[in-house]
C-alpha cells in the first residue's frame, strides 16, 4: 500500500516478503535438489502397517480420562505397546483449579514494618473527615482539574541549604470532588557560577474563581520563566540589600505575569477573574556569602521564621506575630499588577524559613499545639525526609479544611 504522497510504505515491503516466504515450496529431503541421494530414497512404510486401524483413544469415563498410568495400548495384531507419557498442558496463570493450595505463610517473628500512621492533630480528637484522597474531579467537566494530583511533594539541596515542599488538597475539596487549587514551585534560575538563585513559590487559587487551579499553576510556571531573565540583576540587588531596586525588578515581572494570565483567560473564553490566584515568592542566592533573601507577594499567605525553636510569624508584615484572624479579602493576579516586596535577613545558619498558603498560615497563627508540633519537627537541627515532611505538614486542626501548601528552607552554613 502506498500513502497519498506516493511513497513506499515500509510495511508493504515487509508484507510482500512474508507472502513470498509463505508461498515458497517447503523444503523436504525427498524434493530438495541438494539433499544427498541416499537420504532422498527413504523406504515407504509396510502397506499392512499402514492399513491397521488406529487405536481407540476416546476417554473411558469409568477409568478416567486416559485410563490408569500403567494401562497398555493393544493393537489388532495382539502386540502391546506402552502408553506414552502424557503431560498436562502448562496451566494458564501458573496454577490449576484442582491444584492444592500452597501452605499458608507462617507469621513472621519480626516486628511489622514501621508506618507513620494518620497525621497528628490538636485537641483530644481528630477531625471526623478522613485524611486521605477521596472524590476525583471528572475529566469531562474540566480536563485541567482532573489531572491535577491530590498531593505534591518536592525538595532540593544546594550546598548546605536544604528545601522541602508539599501541597495537599484540602478536606473540603476532597469531599466535593474539586481540584486542589494550590500550587508550588521549587526551581533554580540564572547561569552556573554567575547569578544563580533558588526560586521558592506558593500560589493559592481563589476559591470562588472557577479556573483558579489553572491560574495558580500557570502563575508559578511564569514566575520561574520571567525571574530567570532577571536572575543576574536580582543577585546583584540582593548582594547590595537594595530594596527599592528589588521592588522595581519584581513589579516588572509581576506585570508580565498578569498580562499573560489575562491573555490565557481570554483565549479560553473566560473572564480574567476566573483565573484569580495569590502568589508568594522567596528568592535565595546560591552564593553562601550572600545572607539576604528577597521576598515578594501578591495577596495573602504566610512567611515565617523558626529560629532556636521559636516562631516569628508574618516576618514580612508590620505586625510580626500575626493576629490569627481570618480575612477573606485579598489581592490576586491577574487583576493585581504589582507586588509587595521586602529584603529578609541577614539569615543565620540553622534558621528555618517557611513560605505557605493560608491553608497553613491561618491555623499556624491560631493554634499553639500546631506551632509546638512543627517547631519540634523542623527546628531540631535535622531536615526531615520528603515523606516525613509531608506527614508533618498535614497536622490536623478542626475547622481548617482548605488546601495546604508549604515550602521550607533550612539555611546552611556561611561557607
Description of the structure:
The protein is α+β, with helices and mostly antiparallel strands and 415 residues long. It has a domain at 143-410: Phosphatase 2c, domain 1 (4-Layer Sandwich), CATH 3.60.40. Helices cover 27% and strands 20% of the residues. The chain contains 11 helices and 13 strands. It has helices spanning 10-23, 37-40, 47-51, 143-146, 171-176, 212-229, 231-240, 243-267, 358-366, 368-378, 386-393, and strands at 72-74, 80-82, 151-158, 161-168, 182-191, 194-204, 279-285, 293-298, 302-307, 310-312, 340-344, 352-356, 404-410. The strands form 3 sheets. A 6-stranded antiparallel beta sheet has the order 3-4-13-12-9-10, covered by helices on one side. Strand 9 (302-307) and strand 10 (310-312) form a beta hairpin. Helix 6 (212-229) crosses helix 8 and helix 7 (231-240) packs antiparallel against helix 8. The longest helix is centred in the middle third of the chain and has 25 residues, at 243-267. The radius of gyration is 36 Å and the shape is globular. The two termini are 68 Å apart. Residues 1-6, 38-42, 61-72 and 318-328 have low confidence and may be disordered.
